[in-house]
Please model this.
Amino acid sequence: MTEAKNEIKITGREVPRIGVYVCHCGINIGGVVSVPDLVEYAKTLPNVVVGREYKFFCSDNGQEIIKKDIEDGLINRVVVAACSPRMHEPTFRLVCKEAGLNQFLFEQANIREHATWVNMRDHEGAYEIAKDHIKMAVAKARKLLPLEVQKVNVEPSCLIIGAGIAGMNAALDLGAEGYQVHLVERTPTIGGHMAQLDKTFPTMDCSACILTPRMVDVAREKNIEIHSYSEVVDVSGYVGNFNVTIMHKPHYVNQETCTGCGACVDICPVTCGNEFDLGLATRKAIYIPFPQAVPGKYTIDMNKCIQCGLCARTDICEPGAINYDDKPEYVKVKVGTIIIATGWDLYDATELKQYGFGRYPNVINGLQMERLLSSTGPLEGKPARPSDLKAPHSIAFLQCVGSRNFRDGGNQYCSRVCCMYATKQARQYKEKHPEAEIYIFYMDIRAFGKGYEEFYESAAREYGITYVRGRIAEITEDENHDIIIRAEDTLLQTPIEVKVEMFVLSTGLEAKEDADKISSLLSVQRSSDGFFMEAHPKLKPVDTLTNGIFVAGVAQGPKDIPDTVSQAKGAASSAATLMAKGEVEIEPYYSVVIEHQCSGCRSCQSLCPFGAIDFDEFKNIAVVNPVLCKGCGTCVSACPSQALVQNHFANFQLNEIINWALKQ
Model:
């Protein structure tokens, strides 16, 4: 960064000398309104001493024009009329800073999104709106005060919530760079949903062959501390200095002394449903989720255990690892950054009663089919229909179950992976049963990734899988538990009826059921689809609006494994970049308490969405933590005593904008 040669001292008492710079933005602005006329209009406004136009002010040459006017002493305030501040406000603030002007003596008028883009057919209207935006920006610029950023130290450690393929990859990247990582997983093992898969599309690689070495690498990395069977219960602090409380749930088996021998399982008399196999198999009350689990130590499910004491016998558990009196343990850690990698839940197909899931035994969901196909699954890779455990000679798949649903209360977004996993499963079954008839009912096939289109095309061409475009209207069952499907082939525009021996619902992905809890703990926003919201969909896809907190994998939105791993690496890189600096700058858009006006009502404290307001019991006043405050203004608008002022958006600044907006 270029250092300013002569810093311009601004205290707020100087007469504002404003420079207005109107950008053509190619034809985005210049093709709709007359930029020269806007410049001439700006020159008529009070305190405007310089008005200029340029094709692209965001370019190097455009920035130099602004910088030279500052360095020559012509102006001490800058207004750029161009595109969205979200896009280029940091660009122009940096120009001010490099030229020696306080970077917060800058205001941007968005005359592209707010004027020209929305009034392409009404040039006169767009011109008048652009004038209003420039007028209001200049009004605020007259009242701007210099502000200073704050710097806080950053702890060189990271908390990662969720130890699926996203969390593990982020942890390995950060651990390799020398940062301490606390990897928290709420189930007894790391690995996530990928551990339940058999093959991965489009290469048909063995999922376990990819995942298991990764899990072992995580366990071996000295900079990664695995907190399995644990949950984050409290988070306080701010970017660089998060104080986190992690609850280690009781295993009822000493994880230090347990050798994982399995003798306890053999003698356990209690059999219950296996969550890992989605109820298609059973497990004992003392268990490990799957053979390759990391850590490979046992856990007792106390909701099922009858505490018969058999597993605790010294001739069964020689190390004496069984402890029925185990209690939760709370661990406090301090971290500089946080990555959310909580993954996804499968859509509950019982919500769509017309498809018979939960009523007809031979209607299963896509993840259950995955377990039936898996060589480590309940049937060792020899799929059979649940009603009679016979290999079906005909199978139908239905796409978009719980996704792209605008009528039945499902999710409206595309889950992205369903078309491909149904094609993969159909191919796998065909490889084992070439004579089987396979149907895939779909609305649209979305094969968006590298090699996906070829993978889809080969399913019909080489494997003889029949794709039927159309919605299924009705599902019934006959006396043999076969499934009768009535649908319409929309390509042939004719109704069809198909009888199959097993029916697979390609259920979509949705946000974790505890996403609300994580959102509240971390003060991180969620989008309308329930997934965690990124700061910017294109420029900051792994950042959140809370500094120091990043998101990766399906926690941010539906995606496949390659995209999940890519985003995990991006989140790890962003966290490492922040921690490598050792300190971080905090923008000064926080609220300030006018102490003599504060009545101590605490209404601001209860309303603050970021937990940034404390209360001084001795002074009986609210106290704003400037690092936690994000400048949302909720407290300012709610304060009955008008004791709160928001930097850069103070009442006197906003009133100036309003007054000039109303002037003709």
